Amino acid sequence: MTRVVSISPQRPDDVVVDLLAATPAEVVLAAAGAYKAQRDWAAAAPAVRAGALHAIAQSLADSAVEVAALIVREVGKPAGEAAGEVGRAVALLRYYAQQAFDPIGETYAVGGGLGFTARKPRGLAGLITPWNFPLAIPVWKSAPALAFGNAVVIKPAPDATAVALRYAELAAPHLPEGLLTVLPGGAETGAALVSCVDAVSFTGSSAVGRSVAVAAAERGIPAQCEMGGLSATIVLPDADLDKAATEIAYAAMGYAGQKCTATKRIIAVGDSGPLAEALAAKVAALGLGDPAESGVVVGPLITAHARDRVLDAAAQARAGGGQVVAFGVVPSAEGWFAAPAIIAGLEPDSALNREEVFGPICTLTEVSDVDTALELSNATDYGLVTAIYTADLDAALAAAQRCETGMVKVNAPTAGVDFHLPFGGEKNSGYGGKEQGKAAAAFYTSARTVQIGASR
């Protein structure tokens, strides 16, 4: 039997979870229970669904300190970010509780009769979630699904199993039995889930996301896949250098760079020297160490393999002529730590400029003009988010139109999203539509058109 083992990345001898993975048969059984619960849930008044989501939000808020500590322990997220993630999850639940009351269609005049559209829940939503936002992503997928009348089965990343199970425990008293289930497991469990749901929402790597999309297409069900990033930040000569350096340093290195929206490529228009100097100071000042300690911004990598990949990428970049212009110092502590590094002088087609390394490492490239910066920014298979720093609004808006990413941020870091706005990427970063905000309704419901002719 396959086991799911989750280990604390800052203390590898601390086993947070060790349990059996859900088998395909158990996935099918959970799906059957979910369908049974979903019928009554879909028929319930909006106030019932809204009330349940508000109650889950309150239970989570009441347990905020405990859940944040579990996030720190299981995935090594710095305590400040972990507390923020819990707060965000509470807000997400309350936001989608209100959407249960939103209009569900439109009316049209049709030759003396009436035409209208109405939206109905898909049925059962299968959610495959990553480890880096172990609470927020399961919530931002499940909250809208529940608000619009669906049942939910969540297959969390093995490294985030404990947090997902705790979320299910807090939700259980407020939902019909079987409506929300968490099934621990790996690829086999995830594949079984895709085989028996009505819609699947996935967040993770591009390779796995593509396989999920193909499997969903073969079954004729909608898939929403949020995948990798290789996000670029473009800094124009007139930018506020201190603001840009402060925000880029955090966007690139916060939580050890383990976010799909993390800055991985910095492109300086004009002389990059002043920006490199500012970044060096900002990166050096970031707290690095035990994520449970106050002031720590950069914690460990999620696994030893992830740590080794960062170290190998840095070594290869230096061997290829790269110069480390900003760096941090690894603490003398157990755990899977890697020193933050910004590496300049690499060719545009170097590995770090082409392949996403999920860790505290990024590149700095100097170009002569905005056109070249945009060409370089777009020269990747990914398309999640681009950040542009400039004091010229016209230049920012013109550049934004040319960015081949699902999101563009001006004088704001690549990392960090507002849950009431649509979220998602293009190219290999996203498939099947946006998440969050009002966009969620389009995925978790299907529309039907009803036409009523005149009686005479």
Structure in a nutshell:
With 456 residues, the protein is of the alpha/beta class. It is built from 14 helices and 22 strands.
Radius of gyration: 23 Å
How many domains make up the 3D coordinates?
A: 2
- Percent strand equals 15-25%
Q: Could you state the oligomeric state of the chains shown?
A: single chain
Which helices and strands appear, and what pairs or packs with what?
Blueprint: E1 3-7, E2 15-20, H1 24-43, H2 46-62, H3 64-75, H4 79-99, E3 107-110, E4 113-121, E5 124-129, H5 136-147, E6 151-156, H6 161-171, E7 180-182, H7 187-194, E8 199-203, H8 206-219, E9 223-226, E10 231-235, H9 241-253, E11 263-269, H10 273-285, E12 287-288, E13 296-298, H11 304-319, E14 323-327, E15 341-344, E16 361-367, H12 370-378, E17 382-383, E18 385-389, H13 393-402, E19 407-410, E20 426-427, E21 430-431, H14 439-444, E22 445-452
Parallel strand pairs: 5-6, 5-8, 6-7, 8-9, 10-11, 10-18, 11-16, 12-13, 15-16, 18-19
Antiparallel strand pairs: 1-2, 3-4, 4-22, 9-21, 14-15, 17-20
Helix pairs in contact: 1-7, 2-4, 3-4, 3-6, 4-5, 9-10
